[in-house]
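User: What would this chain look like folded?
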Amino acid sequence: MTVEITRLTEGDIPGAIDTIQQAFADDPYKRWIFNDRSKFSLKRNRISLAIRCRWGIRNALFYVAKDPSSPTPSKVLGTALWLPPRSLNTPETWDSYLQSWLLYLRQVGMNLYHGRGGLNTKRYYIWKRKQGILQNELWEDPRGYYFCNIVTVLPEAQGLGVGRLLFREVTDMADREGMRCYLESSKDEPNITIYERMGFHFCKELECDDEGVTCKLFAMIREPQTPNDKAASDS
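Assistant: Here's the prediction, encoded as structure tokens.
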């Protein structure tokens, strides 16, 4: 397999959504926030993810993995969405502000037309509040962090190094710039062990509680690495 990592394009969006939906089909966070499975709509979820993808093409670091040597060279095998670091001392640009509002308005329009698709809004805002508290506690670098929001690989392509390449597309960039990376995982095992191989270390566990029904997220940070550090982690 010859894996090629490229930036997400409009034509990649359907395949990227396939990887995300398959990877998160049994995700603990997804089961918690979409707790009434009878109301969950795959169609509405695809529309929501497509809105996010189009926003990410312009405003984030959105990558896809493909195998150009395969019989299906345009098939998306894996997807990664990273949010670039933003310095605490740098005010938000007007373009960024406008793009955030456009994303919000498109999501509102989707909700008005397609409904919530089973989303438990109470739990969503519990998570957002807890996440904000956690990041305020852990994010000490005033330059900001590369935030790994999504990394997914199709089941058929797992174990072949696709995920590592998707990570390295940004972690190598962070290393060159001397920047830290951050992620939150909804699974401790095997995810924490996998991310530790990428140079991340566990920082704190976050518990979201809705009247005794809980969901846990595990926060990890990666320090910038030297070539020697990377060689040690690969061995």
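Strands lie at 4-7, 61-66, 78-83, 145-153, 180-185, 200-210, 213-222. If you want, I can go into more detail on any region.
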